[in-house]
Amino acid sequence: MATREKMRFSADRNGFLDTGNQWFVTSRFNRRDSLVTMKLPPSAVFVTTLAGSSFMSLRLSLILSGFLLCSISLVGCSRQAPIQETIVEEEIVEKLLGAPDRLTSLVKQVPDATYQSVENGVRRATVKTRLPDGGMMTLWVYQPDPLPSGKLPCVFIAPAGTRLVHGSELGKGAEAEHIPWAKAGFTVVAYELSGDPGSDNASNAQMKTAAEQFRGAKSGLLNAQVAMAYAKEKLPFVDSRRFYTAGHSSAGTMSLYVAEMDPQVKACVAFMPAVDVRAWLGVQGLTTIQQNNIVPEAGAYVSKISPMTYMDRLSQPTFLVYVGNDDKAITGPAEKFAKQMQDLGKDITVVKIPTGTHYGSMIQEGIPLAIEWLKMVDSMN
């Protein structure tokens, strides 16, 4: 167990860029001191938080086994008004998107889910629902077992491991990212992304078809919206006012993107996301996509789906985690994104893990911290 030490808050606006060998978290809230940075020894994980747009005062107590107990009182008020409308990409025609009532009618046709135990305290159902274009999408729906009384919040998670120009099916092993949320008392709806190429060695023709299907689903936004419609209509134990997104790597990018685009999302968690898709793909990746005609005008397209492009719309509380020694195409843009969000007065909590691994740090440190943070945010909704 880490030793508790007395610490002072620092109002150094650039503090979150200078970590040394320490873990640290920065939070932005609207007081005279613009940035709160809490630093502790490497043996401790430490979390500060922020006052979001939905509340005026807050006391956070995070207790993690093997980690430090931090209790912080903050007062603030976000300058950001909640976003009320959904952006629609220019390339998608209205008849393909489907009006909300059409999504409702689609998911109402889905048979009731049958749940089976996947681990002690967690049950899961596999559900197949139609998309507006006639295609099918698989959902994995997790619930705590036994199911508590009262309505539950719901976390929506896309599959990781895509190039963000195509989609992916739900794959074995992804449960490790889902089950901890259900054990913590959340409903989880994991959803596919349209346009799975079928293989890492897919041909250019297969990649082109997959990319077209992905764009046809609003670059994954439509998949998320169908998943949310399903939760609203078919999961009576879910509170539709408490929808949250989460994800790791490319799914972290999707988590941010969906939160930016759809006001149904009330908070967002992103682990090691590519916030600048163009920088993440790099010159070689973009050149390959462009020369093989996988995505027309690839540079403009990936800029359009990057969370960095729409950060002004991200009014929800946001929890961002990244690893200092991860790919520079992730860490550099993540630091820039965090600072710009803070400069805009956004509700963001930033966790930088100095050294770790792209996947393992999400499982071991990121998810436990994010669960406690989201519990705090959810208690205010």
From TrEMBL:
The keyword Hydrolase applies. InterPro entries: AB_hydrolase_fold, FrsA_esterase, Peptidase_S9_cat. Coiled coil: none annotated. Pfam families: Peptidase_S9 (PF00326). It comes from the Bacteria. Residues 181-360 form the Peptidase S9 prolyl oligopeptidase catalytic domain. Keywords: Hydrolase. One of its GO terms (biological process) is proteolysis. Gene3D superfamilies: alpha/beta hydrolase (3.40.50.1820). GO terms for molecular function: carboxylic ester hydrolase activity; serine-type peptidase activity. This is Peptidase S9 prolyl oligopeptidase catalytic domain-containing protein. It comes from Blastopirellula marina.
